[in-house]
Specification:
This protein is 59% helix and 11% strand. It is mostly helical. It has a two-stranded parallel sheet.
């Protein structure tokens, strides 16, 4: 559910930080979000540039203390 919430917020223009103790989970989450966004592009609900912009607003880290300091441009 976390990756879906991250996607919704990122698509709405918010900068998102995903945190988990396992890097593999973060990688999988980012991949699921990318796949979801691509599906929306293929169905015509989203432009490719908007999908790319949403994905760029999501940063991941396995360290909670790092999450608060991450800068998302």
């Amino acid at each position: 559910m976390g990756h879906s919430l991250a996607q919704v917020f990122a698509q709405s223009g918010y900068k998102v930080r995903l945190n988990d103790v396992q890097e593999e989970i973060l990688s999988k989450a980012k991949g699921l979000i990318a796949a979801n966004l691509q599906t929306l592009v293929e169905l015509g609900f989203l432009e490719q540039k908007d999908a790319a912009a949403a994905l760029s607003r999501i940063l991941t880290t396995p360290r909670i203390e790092e999450a608060g300091r991450m800068r998302i441009s």
